[in-house]
Amino acid sequence: MEDKSCPFKIILGSSSIARRKILAEMGYEFTLMSADIDEKDIRKENPEDLVMALAEAKADSILSKLQTIDNQEKDEIPTILIAADTVVIYEGVVREKPANEKEAREFIQGYSGGHAATVGSVLVTNLKTGFRKGAWDRVEIYFHEIPDEIIEKLIEEGTVLHVAGGLIIEHPLIKPYVKQVVSLIISVNHMVGTTDSVMGLPKALTQKLIKEAL
Prior knowledge:
It comes from Durio zibethinus (Durian). It holds the Pfam family Maf. GO terms for molecular function: nucleoside triphosphate diphosphatase activity. This protein has helices spanning 17-25, 47-69, 101-111, 148-157, 195-199, 203-213, and strands at 9-12, 31-32, 79-90, 93-95, 115-126, 132-143, 178-184. By secondary structure, it is α/β, with parallel strands linked by helices.
């Protein structure tokens, strides 16, 4: 499904529906591949290092799959592999996907009337040149009080069980209770986070890295 008018191909190394939607909104056509890794085997002291390490592990897993295809040298145009990862930070603790409904409920109850943060990474690899670069951003999310019945509907619907921290600010049930999304500039080397960062793929950062990789 590559766009023939585009001077490069894109592989999105993710099974995330939100990431697919965001990349499509950016105007790109792409193919999909998923990584075979156990994310819980990768541990780092701070969330920024963790999301970068996870994105690198995903990219390496997909690259190992692509080596068996071994068709990159035959392509005249480059292929860009995009890998990404996101974690939620609550009271200084990293939250990944909830283990069960009970944990998801506890996560969301904690956000009610409070706040959480997301740290997300993007890693791009040019398969033709070997160039690889990644970066991360951070976003703070503040919430109104979330009614118990809304939390129960979210748990019953089930999507929150499959995302970092059980946090989906774009979900129709939770969106009315999002008070504020605050983007933070961490340093000159890292981008300003946005709502799409929380969803799993920051558009500005992804665009910047794609351009640098070409």
